[in-house]
Amino acid sequence: MDNTEFAKLAEKTISLIADTIEVEDKNCLIDIDFQGDILTLTTNQGVFVINKHSAAKEIWLSSPISGPYHFYYVAGKWKSKSSDDLVVILEQELKINMINCSY
């Protein structure tokens, strides 16, 4: 994947995550701030930060629950080196339905 393809895919993914959370957060418990390439989610558990890292061609997640992750795109999913899935982690930690978040 070249830099342009990565940028488009990462931006689409992060935007889709923000949109999905906005729709599925029925009780308005998550404050969403999407500035440039950085998505900040403020919850009662702490602050989650999701951003793209172009040099590594990864999406990075900083979670107040499980710590930092680096995800790379493989076989249609964003996976960590330990095979964790970005969407699954967000779904579990934010306790929100991310089923409609398909990139």
From TrEMBL:
Protein name: Iron donor protein CyaY
GO molecular function terms attached to this record: 2 iron, 2 sulfur cluster binding; ferric iron binding; ferrous iron binding; ferroxidase activity; iron chaperone activity
Family: Belongs to the frataxin family.
Gene: cyaY
InterPro entries assigned: Frataxin/CyaY, Frataxin/CyaY_sf, Frataxin_CS
Gene Ontology BP, a term: iron-sulfur cluster assembly
SUPFAM superfamilies: Frataxin/Nqo15-like
GO cellular component, one term: cytoplasm
Keywords on record: Iron
